[in-house]
Each structure stands twice: as structure tokens, then as C-alpha cells.
TrEMBL record:
Residues 324-348 are annotated as: Disordered. It comes from Salinirubellus salinus. PANTHER family: NEUROPATHY TARGET ESTERASE/SWISS CHEESE D.MELANOGASTER (PTHR14226), SLR0060 PROTEIN (PTHR14226:SF78). Gene3D superfamilies: Cytosolic phospholipase A2 catalytic domain. One of its GO terms (biological process) is lipid catabolic process. It comes from the Archaea. Signal peptide: none annotated. The keyword Hydrolase applies. This is Patatin-like phospholipase family protein.
Length: 348
């Protein structure tokens, strides 16, 4: 690839964006997308796909619909409005948010706490329905199929089929309100969402976020770069030893496991393309770049919907996007622009 990421000509670089899930922390992702789309240069970049899981799916679907119906400026506006709607801005909702955070903290520290089934708590159904109404206010799901054309970005939402025990992604016209709600159906908080006779849970258990699905498109739409907005930190400074720290790191690792497996496969495909083992008219090399949440927050704060907390994450995401674009085509940390993901494997 040339220095600006394009394949040696003047056309824009084909880019896909993958949004990792992580509850309230994905307000950071909304900030990243706002920053990217605020400065989006169509002569430099062509968005050919966007995917998301859980809260990342909220961002991906709202951004995609705004982009295909009105454009980047509207996407910037609606992403901010989305998180203003999701925020706990009334006393009852604020109390529920605080209760969820404190309950999560207590469980992480090993304190016995009641854990009722979401199927027996009316608030679980009411909360899920409230999220659905918010999504409906930003996306006309009946209108989605009309914008799923060869020239529009691919849209992918990740879930897991509870009964089948398999990952399941929903593409383009199959992305319904139920699919997005299923992608965020945390088993401890919300009931499974039934789709085609099967219950579906939070996509955090599957592809977080979907990456390979963004590459299964015609050759002229395959992304030359995938920008991963990563919520869970890749590295940790030390071995966690307290119950809370152990729970925290376990949560982070589980969120990154599927992501790193998919990125490793992308690297293999790149090597096969360079070696001539795959036809160049069907496959392209795909650079991976990460935009990471640059501060560590405990897992309990993924349930924190205080307006000031979410606004802080939005602003942090916008600053991260600004740094990313300023550093482009180098990766955000100034290292080589490609293969920016773990490669080391330990074998015993």
C-alpha cells in the first residue's frame, strides 16, 4: 500500500470500522465516531462497512443509518443525542443506575448479593423495551433494507444463539430492532431476545466486535483497513490478585479473546495474499488499526449511566479520534501502521 493507505492510485482508501462492546464504556466509541465523522474526508476515505456488538452495536446502527440517509454531520449529531437519551437523567433512573454499579462492585469483591432472574423481574423487560424505543427514535428499521445497496456500507451486528451455542451475526436488511436488542441482552440483566425461534444473548460472548464479516463482501468493497474501536484494554501492568481485580481482568480478557482470534486470521490472510496463495482479484491485504480507550475503568462502571460520566467518555473518544487522524497513516502510538495487534503465542 502507499503511504496514505490507498492501493497506489488516487481513489480513497476503503475503510471499515468495528465497534467493540462494553456497556456504558461504549459512549467512548460514540465519541470516536463523532470525531472521525466530523473530520471525514471523502476524497481520502470511503466507509465500506461498520460493525458492532452490544453497546457498540447501538453506535454502529445509529451512525450507519444517519450516514446513509443524511450524511456525516447528521451522524455526529445523532450519536451525541443517542447517549443523552441513554443517560440516567431522572431520579428513579439514576437510582437504578447507581444500584447496578454498587451491586456489580459488591459481587466482584466476593460479597454475597441477591441475583434475581431477569425473567422474574418486570424492570428487566421494561428496561429492554425502553432501549428499543430509544433506538426506534433514531433508526427507522422498516427503512433499513432500502439502504442496503452495493454502494452503501456493510452493516453487521453480533449476537450469540443461546440454544444453538453458536455466534450469529446479522447483516444489512437483517439488522432489526430485535437483533440490536439481542446484541445487548446481558444475561444477568435482560431476557434473551427471540429471533427465528431461538433465544439470543449479548454479543460479548461471540464476536466482539465482528471483523471477518466485514471482509466477506465483493472484492471491490473489501476494506483495505479496519479501524477497531477497542474498549477492553489489551495489556495489564501486573497479575491481578484481589477478587475485584481478578474479576476485572477476566472481563477484559473475555471481551478481547474473540477479537484477537479474528485479527490473527486477518494477518494470516494478508500473508497468504502476499505469498500469492490467494487470487489478487478476490482478496486484498487489510491493515488493522486500533483506537483504544486510554483509561482503565472498573467493570462495574459499564453499568454507570450518570450523564457526567457518559459525557466524559464522549469527549475522551473525540480526543482519541483527533489524535488518530493527526497521526495517520502511522498508528496512534507512532509504530508501524500495519499488523498492530498481538502476535506472540506461548506454547507449552
Amino acid at each position: 500500500m502507499s503511504a496514505d493507505g490507498a492501493a497506489g492510485d488516487d481513489r480513497p482508501t476503503r475503510v471499515a470500522i468495528a465497534c467493540q462492546g462494553g456497556g456504558s464504556h461504549t459512549a467512548f466509541t460514540a465519541g470516536v465516531l463523532r470525531g472521525l465523522f466530523h473530520e471525514w474526508d471523502e476524497e481520502r476515505f470511503e466507509l465500506v462497512g461498520i460493525s458492532g456488538t452490544s453497546g457498540g452495536a447501538f453506535n454502529a446502527v445509529v451512525a450507519w443509518y444517519a450516514l446513509v440517509t443524511e450524511g456525516p454531520a447528521t451522524a455526529v449529531e445523532r450519536l451525541g443525542d443517542l447517549w443523552a437519551e441513554l443517560a440516567a437523567d431522572d431520579p428513579v433512573d439514576a437510582w437504578a443506575s447507581a444500584l447496578g454499579v454498587w451491586g456489580s462492585m459488591a459481587r466482584d469483591m466476593g460479597v454475597p448479593t441477591p441475583q434475581p432472574s431477569p425473567y422474574t423481574v418486570p424492570a428487566s423487560y421494561l428496561g429492554q423495551r425502553r432501549i428499543g424505543r430509544i433506538l426506534e427514535s433514531f433508526v427507522d428499521f422498516d427503512d433499513v433494507p432500502a439502504h442496503c445497496t452495493h454502494t452503501d456500507p456493510e452493516l453487521v451486528v453480533g449476537t450469540v444463539d443461546v440454544e444453538g451455542g453458536v455466534f450469529e451475526t446479522f447483516h444489512n436488511e437483517d439488522v432489526t430492532e430485535d437483533a440490536v436488542l439481542a446484541s445487548a441482552a446481558i444475561p444477568e440483566l435482560f431476557p434473551a431476545v427471540e429471533i427465528d425461534g431461538h433465544g439470543h444473548w449479548d454479543g460479548l460472548f461471540s464476536q466482539n466486535p465482528p471483523v471477518l464479516d466485514l471482509l466477506t463482501v465483493p472484492a471491490d468493497r473489501k476494506p483495505e483497513e479496519v479501524w477497531v474501536v477497542q474498549i477492553n484494554p489489551q495489556n495489564d501492568a501486573a497479575i491481578p490478585r484481589t477478587p475485584a481485580a481478578i474479576a476485572d481482568r477476566r472481563n477484559e480478557l473475555s471481551g478481547n479473546l474473540s477479537l484477537n482470534q479474528e485479527l490473527r486470521f486477518v494477518r494470516w490472510v494478508n500473508e497468504w495474499v502476499r505469498a500469492g496463495h490467494l487470487p489478487a482479484d478476490e482478496f486484498v491485504e487489510t491493515d488493522i488499526r486500533r483506537i483504544e480507550l486510554d483509561e482503565h475503568f472498573g467493570p462495574s462502571t459499564k453499568l454507570d449511566r450518570r450523564p457526567e460520566f457518559l459525557e466524559g467518555l464522549l469527549e475522551r473518544g473525540e480526543r482519541a479520534a483527533e489524535r488518530f487522524l493527526q497521526a495517520y497513516p502511522a498508528s496512534p502510538d507512532g509504530t508501524a501502521p500495519t499488523d498492530d495487534y498481538p502476535r506472540t503465542e506461548r506454547r507449552h
